[in-house]
Amino acid sequence: MKLIRQDENEAAELIRGYMKPVFGFALNRVKQRMEADNRI
Q: What is the rounded distance in angstroms from the CA atom of residue 8 to the CA atom of residue 12?
């Protein structure tokens, strides 16, 4: 069980690391914050 939890934590960290760049890309494309939130 401990290994699964560690894998989940590592996956969550990896995803968090990509959220800002992906959001920035979406915001740059649509130019509206609300729309960018809906795209990711």
A: 6
CB 40 within 8 A of CB 24: no
Cα gap 14→5, rounded to integer Å: 14
SS3 assignment, position 19: helix
* Closest residue by Cα to residue 9 from 1, 31, 24: 1
- pTM of the shown model: 0.56
Residue 26 is encoded by which pair of tokens?
């979406």
The 10s digit of each residue's pLDDT in 2-21 is 666 788 899 999 999 999 99
